[in-house]
Write a structure and sequence with these properties.
The complex is a heterodimer of chains A (364) and B (139). Chain A is an alpha/beta fold. Chain A has 2 domains: 3-220, no CATH class; 231-352, no CATH class. Chain A contains 14 helices and 8 strands. Chain A has helices at residues 10-23, 67-74, 87-98, 127-140, 150-153, 171-174, 186-191, 210-227, 234-241, 249-253, 273-282, 292-303, 312-316, 323-336; strands spanning 3-5, 29-36, 41-47, 81-85, 107-112, 165-167, 180-183, 199-200. In chain A, strand 4 (81-85), helix 3 and strand 5 (107-112) form a beta-alpha-beta unit. Chain B has 139 residues and is α/β, with parallel strands linked by helices. Chain B has a single domain (8-129), classed as Rossmann fold. In chain B, 40% of the residues lie in helices and 17% in strands. Classes of the chains: A alpha/beta (364), B alpha/beta (139). The A-B interface holds A 232-237, 263, 283, 285-287, 294, 297-298, 300-301, 304-305, 330, 333-334, 337-338, 351-352, 354-357, 359-360, 363-364 and B 48-49, 52-53, 56, 66, 69-70, 76, 79-80, 82-91, 93-96, 104-106, 134-135, 137-139.
């Protein structure tokens, strides 16, 4: 597999590639981040006309929605699509494909070594432009940018897993080699045939990102320790989730929570008059809305092992609960039981969907 | 009897453990009267949330029991259940539920004696731990 040397900024080169793919008819549409000048913001955009790519910014530390979630409905349209994804978005999409909620068949995935994204509250008018120069400088040094999402700072999976095309954005620029676009699959070679640029046989070298990895792991240790600062247990849990207003926002932005009807929004949790009467006949008072903590525990049992730690849930939480950090922490524990890494391999089964006859002999 | 008695929910599979409990009764074996039995078609039917909900409703302990691995009436229900329980365990730990409060065991229809032993064990374990306070819904 070959690679393409990038002579300009990584974002511009990816944009050139998308334009080439659209112009040559190799794809019908591109999914990428794009500047929306009218409201001075960046948003994920589905583009079919090449001129609309002018304002595209494929590599930008902003995640307004987890693209994996959005791709799930688009990817089965039968149209050829190229998508620029952050590593966790790609992993989320892999998890969705495992759940039969998407397909790689007509999809070309382009991903890059991610420096983390800014919380949405910082993505306000112009603010992001001010932050970008410092952000770029920090990641080129292999350090962890401040102000980014807590789970991004603590993310050790910033190198894309199984993307068709990997763009190295940070580490290598530091060693003076410039950024490179690595073509990892046959599909990538096929799609980029005829695309200009100096080719080489260079292979992606993860060891160049060792410094970043070490820094991230240190941040992860700090984040996980902060979650249980009052010790594990219900008191800590109440501190964390006690503020929950039950809006279910974390659920709706979660790329893994794909159920059209969540159990917690179904008739199983339909609080009606008989429920209140029955409950109040035993106790004198009931907190409203009921079961806000129970909702989070339910989500933990349902999908924690598939959590990719994208941080959308924390970002949208109106009361500032560090949902993503809790899920990342407990998710890593449950996934480790089965040596599972969410989004690592589309052939790998979801832990609770399969079993081995000889295992877990300590249970029962 | 004014002394505190643990209240334990026993979720038993129809084909093995429930029949095991029956055998224990028919054989007049003695075991503590602290369990409240819910019969389910298979241990695979047990949603981890059932366990959370019972702890929240005030049960001091939960026992889930099904057929021995390999003996499931539905071939693989208990294998799947075993994985679900494996996921649940670290979560219970995270919430601060003592590991002994929630126990899993495999009891066949012929193991009346084992049923009595398991119930005695969980009752004593939970008695030692005292009344459940974590997770219990107060409001």
């Amino acid at each position: 597999m070959s690679s393409i040397v990038i002579d300009t900024s990584a974002s511009r080169k990816v944009k050139e590639l998308l334009r080439f793919l659209l112009d040559s008819g190799k794809i019908d549409a591109a999914v990428t981040m794009r500047k929306i000048p009218e409201n001075n913001s960046y948003d994920l955009t589905l583009i079919t006309d090449a001129p609309d790519l002018d304002e595209a910014v494929p590599v930008i530390p902003v995640m307004t929605v987890n693209a994996g979630q959005v791709l799930s409905s688009i990817s089965t349209s039968g149209k050829k699509i190229a998508a620029v994804l952050k590593p966790c978005e790609l992993r989320a999409f892999v998890e969705l494909v495992k759940r039969e909620q998407g397909s790689f068949e007509n999809l070309l995935t382009i991903s890059y070594t991610c420096g983390g994204v800014f919380p949405l509250e910082l993505v306000k008018e112009g603010q992001i432009e001010e932050l970008l120069p410092k952000y770029d400088k920090t990641i080129s040094k292999g350090e962890v940018p401040i102000n980014t999402r807590d789970t991004c700072r603590a993310c050790e999976h910033f190198i894309p897993m199984n993307a068709d095309i990997t763009v190295s954005v940070s580490g290598e620029c530091e060693s003076g080699k410039g950024c490179v676009m690595y073509l990892n699959t046959e599909k990538a070679e096929e799609f980029t045939e005829g695309f200009g640029g100096e080719r080489s046989e260079q292979k992606f070298d993860p060891s160049l990102f060792q410094k970043t990895l070490d820094a991230r792991l240190a941040e992860k240790g700090k984040l996980f320790a902060s979650i249980t600062k009052d010790g594990p247990g219900l008191d800590g849990l109440l501190d964390l989730f006690g503020k929950c207003v039950g809006c279910h926002g974390c659920n709706s932005v979660c790329p893994i929570c794909y159920c059209l009807l969540c159990d917690f929004e179904s008739a199983n949790f339909d609080y009606n008059l008989p429920y209140f009467e029955e409950y109040l006949s035993r106790r004198g008072a009931l907190r409203l809305p009921p079961d806000t903590i129970f909702f989070h525990m339910g989500r933990l049992t349902h999908m924690s092992f598939s959590c990719v730690g994208c941080g959308m849930c924390s970002d949208v939480c109106p009361v500032g609960i560090p949902v993503a950090a809790v899920f990342k922490k407990t998710g890593e524990k449950t996934a480790a039981l089965f040596d599972y890494v969410p989004g690592r391999d589309v052939e790998e089964s979801i832990p609770v969907m399969v079993y081995k006859e000889e295992e877990l002999s300590d249970i029962g | 009897m004014s002394e505190w008695q643990p209240k334990i929910l026993a979720i038993l599979c129809n084909w093995c453990s429930y029949a095991g409990a029956d055998l224990a009764g028919v054989s007049r074996m003695q075991y503590p009267p602290n369990i409240r039995v819910v019969r389910v078609p298979c241990s695979g039917r047990v949603d981890p949330l059932f366990i959370m909900k019972s702890l929240q409703s005030g049960f001091d302990g939960v026992l889930v029991s099904g057929c021995h691995p390999g003996d499931c009436h539905y071939i693989s229900g208990n294998y799947v259940a075993r994985r679900k329980f494996a996921v649940l365990k670290p979560l219970l730990e995270f919430i601060g539920i003592e590991p002994n409060r929630v126990q899993f065991s495999w009891i066949s229809a012929g193991e009346g004696e084992r049923f009595a032993t398991v119930v005695t064990k969980i009752t004593e374990d939970v008695r030692k731990l005292g009344p459940s306070t974590r997770l219990v819904k107060k409001l």
